[in-house]
């Protein structure tokens, strides 16, 4: 239990350690985010910030499961697809284009979508919860692809080419002509799920979950129901993913099997990894980076024959992903840590330099050890 | 009561399995011809899945590397053979003619097959040496690296070969069908693909059980540090196994490209199939890959045709049958049928 205790101690002391500069930065960030509709153009507000926020929510569910549950799930996009499709099927679609079109009110659709996603996620979690490390990754990927092919084949539920013109709550306006309400909804949801996840990891459940991440056999012998904890954590992650799914349907006004294909599954993984899997905040940082790369690569990419041109977004994001995984497994947050450490050394602030270096080194080694430790301890459990 | 509760899933799944067998038996007696065709369809699909999954499971068993690029290597193998056939054996103009109007010699199929197999083996070797060799043991990081490579590969293949679905021409001198009595079945599917899988399975068995290289691989699966302590060059063995595993993907790509087609999206489909096969068969086990492939192939094939109940057509829901297969196996054996703890 010592490692569990140290983790929670670290979590608790972190806000207390935040410097004045940190608080000022946070306040500035909050002001920029709150005033964003006044600062940025419609296009930026919608295509960069709003997209980054809902993608960040989806990726944060993956980060949460990886960081606190030791479960690197590739099923998050499938879960949000289930939520999105469930909602899109039951609510009113303007021209009844695809789907069941039962004509429910939008809010009832939201509740139904999230409920269906939670049920499916509980089932997926129950299947995958006895697998650890890389096995968990593979099983959730297989489940995710099955969901994709399911919606691809069952056109009754997915329409031909997707369900379009899905209706949304009235106060949201049309996200294309007035993106501001949807932006605030996404911002509110992001803050909400962030606080929810931060809260959960400090509850007894969250602490037990981190114990299970570190040492499943020990937690089992202490009397914890390990598969049940992991299943419930997966379901909680699915709740966050389902919110992202609802927001994605409102953002795109439609959902099709293509919106939950393997590219999207991997995109959410890429976002979480680029940002950094060691902190929940990384999900939104990664999503912002992803949206920016998407935006700039489509206009500024030099043309090198067929190999590289503005249409080759996937090649570019794949290369970025590869570079991040090769050079900085801790993502942009890890790069930030290292830069901060370098700056501190240059300034000669020795005391803080050592502190920053230690915390940076901690996250890096933790990052490297989690997968290996996860798989080896996982096999012990399965043997037992 | 506890015993009943523990045995509950088994009893339930046993009943389900029995119901499926009875259902298939009824269907078989109603239409023997269709049943035979569907069984062979399933088995030939399984042959293809086995070759891809055998490479995947070989790499995983020895190195604990989940090669998420196996589907990309499969599709790239198909494209390499397709391009080789177009350039070397068709005068470069046949792509504007309808398939089948040109003649393809036996060499015009076999040479691209061998070329693509070796090229894909080398590509795989390159991936292993450049990206995976130096972070051995970090299995999540290695999986992420191969995912990144598969993203780049998929995009580059769309850029270079376009979105049109094409297929590799089988030699025109080979018969189109095999005929037994009044029953016809495509020759290529049954004899070439089915035969290749059986031969490959047998050769892999010999390689692993009877040769020194296989002995080293088996030892490496059990205890890698001990193997290297005994003075075996583990890196060389890893490189060899990765080359072999990638080669199998390339070979399957050519077989699949002739039997089905080559086109975007097949990489995902075959990655999924390989994943399901090794999840149900047990990761790292080649007999497991064979059994898993047969189960998956048959389930896919039967569920595509036998899900009509009266007037309701449930065949679009056939994907759920694969899903149930995965759940059923994992519920009883979380490590797959032949899986063992690492």
Can you give a write-up of this model?
The complex is a heterodimer of chains A (384) and B (342). Helices cover 76% and strands 0% of the residues of chain A. By secondary structure, chain A is mainly α. Chain A has one domain (2-383). In chain A, α3 (42-69) packs antiparallel against α11 (226-252). Chain B is mostly helical and 342 residues long. Chain B has one domain: ABC transporter involved in vitamin B12 uptake, BtuC (Orthogonal Bundle). Chain B has 12 helices and 4 strands, in the order αααααββααααααββα. Chain B has helices at 2-30, 32-63, 70-89, 107-132, 139-161, 187-210, 212-222, 224-229, 234-259, 266-281, 286-305, 318-332; strands at residues 177-180, 183-186, 308-309, 312-313. In chain B, the strands form 2 sheets. A two-stranded antiparallel ribbon of chain B has the order 1-2. Chain B has a two-stranded antiparallel sheet with strand order 3-4. Chain B starts with a helix and ends in a 10-residue tail after the last helix. At the A-B interface, α6, α12, α14 and α16 of A face α5, α10 and α12 of B.
Compute the separation of the termini of chain A in Å. Answer: 20 Å
The profile of the biggest β sheet of chain A is: none
Enter the CATH topology name of chain B.
ABC transporter involved in vitamin B12 uptake, BtuC
The top-level CATH class of chain B is Mainly Alpha
- The SS-based structural class of chain A is mainly alpha
Which consecutive residue ranges of chain B, at least 5 long each, have pLDDT under 50? 92-97
End-to-end separation of chain B in angstroms reads 33 Å
Indicate the radius of gyration of chain A in whole angstroms.
Answer: 21 Å
Largest sheet of chain B: 2 strands, antiparallel
Query: What is the typical, i.e. mean, pLDDT of chain B?
Result: 88
Order of helices and strands of chain B: HHHHHEEHHHHHHEEH
| CATH architecture grouping of chain B | Orthogonal Bundle
């Amino acid at each position: 239990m010592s490692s569990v205790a140290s983790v929670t101690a670290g979590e608790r002391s972190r806000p207390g350690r935040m410097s004045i500069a940190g608080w000022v930065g946070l306040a500035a960030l909050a002001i920029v985010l709150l005033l964003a509709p006044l600062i940025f153009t419609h296009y930026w507000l919608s295509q960069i910030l709003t997209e980054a926020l809902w993608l960040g929510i989806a990726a944060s569910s993956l980060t949460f499961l990886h960081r606190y549950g030791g479960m690197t799930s590739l099923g998050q996009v499938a879960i949000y697809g289930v939520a999105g499709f469930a909602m899109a099927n039951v609510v009113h679609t303007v021209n009844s284009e695809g789907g069941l079109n039962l004509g429910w009110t939008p809010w009832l659709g939201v509740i139904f979508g999230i409920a269906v996603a939670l049920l499916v996620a509980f089932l997926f979690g129950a299947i995958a919860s006895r697998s650890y490390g890389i096995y968990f990754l593979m099983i959730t990927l297989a489940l995710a692809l099955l969901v994709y092919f399911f919606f691809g084949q069952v056109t009754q539920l997915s329409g031909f080419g997707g369900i379009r013109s899905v209706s949304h709550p009235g106060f949201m306006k049309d996200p294309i002509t007035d993106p501001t309400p949807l932006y605030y909804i996404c911002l509110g949801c992001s803050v909400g799920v962030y606080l929810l996840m931060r809260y959960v990891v400090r509850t007894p459940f969250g602490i037990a979950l981190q114990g299970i991440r570190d040492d499943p056999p020990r937690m089992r012998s202490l009397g914890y129901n390990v598969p049940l904890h992991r299943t419930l954590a997966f379901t909680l992650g699915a709740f966050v993913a389902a919110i992202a799914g609802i927001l994605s349907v409102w953002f795109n006004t439609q959902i099709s099997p293509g919106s939950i294909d393997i590219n999207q599954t991997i995109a959410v993984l890429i976002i979480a990894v680029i940002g950094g899997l060691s902190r929940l905040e990384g999900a939104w940082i990664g999503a912002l980076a992803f949206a920016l790369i998407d935006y700039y690569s489509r206009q500024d990419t030099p043309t090198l024959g067929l190999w590289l041109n503005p249409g080759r977004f996937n090649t570019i994001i794949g290369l970025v992903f590869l570079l991040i995984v090769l050079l900085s497994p801790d993502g942009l947050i890890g790069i930030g840590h290292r830069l901060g450490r370098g700056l501190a050394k240059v300034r000669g602030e020795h005391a803080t330099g050592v502190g920053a270096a230690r915390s940076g080194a901690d996250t890096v080694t933790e990052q490297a050890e989690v997968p290996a430790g996860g798989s080896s301890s996982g096999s012990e459990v399965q043997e037992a | 009561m506890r015993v009943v509760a523990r045995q509950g899933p088994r009893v339930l799944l046993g009943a389900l399995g029995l119901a499926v067998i009875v259902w298939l038996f009824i269907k078989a007696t109603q239409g023997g011809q269709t049943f035979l065709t569907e069984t062979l369809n399933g088995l030939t699909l399984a042959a293809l899945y086995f070759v891809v999954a055998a490479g995947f499971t070989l790499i995983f068993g020895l190195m604990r590397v989940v090669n998420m690029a196996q589907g990309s290597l499969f599709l790239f193998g198909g494209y390499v053979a397709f391009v080789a056939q177009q350039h070397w054996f068709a005068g470069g103009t046949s792509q504007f003619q309808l398939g089948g109007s040109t003649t393809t010699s036996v060499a015009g199929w076999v040479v691209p097959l061998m070329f693509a197999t070796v090229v894909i083996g080398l590509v795989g070797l390159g991936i292993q040496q450049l990206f995976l060799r130096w972070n051995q043991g970090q299995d999540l990081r290695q999986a992420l690296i191969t995912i990144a490579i598969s993203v780049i590969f998929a995009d580059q293949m769309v850029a270079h070969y376009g979105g049109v679905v094409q297929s590799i021409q089988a030699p025109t001198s080979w018969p189109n069908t095999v005929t037994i009595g009044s029953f016809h079945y495509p020759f290529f599917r049954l004899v070439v693909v089915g035969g290749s899988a059986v031969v490959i399975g047998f050769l892999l068995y010999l390689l692993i059980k009877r040769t020194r290289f296989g002995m080293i691989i088996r030892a490496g699966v059990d205890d890698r540090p001990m193997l290297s302590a005994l003075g075996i060059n583990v890196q060389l063995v890893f490189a060899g196994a990765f080359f072999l595993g990638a080669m199998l993907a390339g070979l399957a790509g050519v077989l699949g490209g002739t039997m089905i087609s080559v086109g975007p999206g097949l990489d995902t489909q075959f990655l999924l199939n390989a994943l399901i096969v090794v999840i149900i068969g047990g990761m790292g086990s080649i007999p497991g890959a064979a059994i898993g492939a047969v189960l998956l192939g048959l389930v896919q094939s039967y569920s595509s045709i036998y899900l009509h109940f009266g007037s309701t057509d449930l065949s679009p829901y056939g994907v759920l049958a694969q899903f149930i297969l995965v759940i059923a196996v994992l519920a009883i054996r979380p490590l797959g049928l032949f899986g063992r703890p690492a």
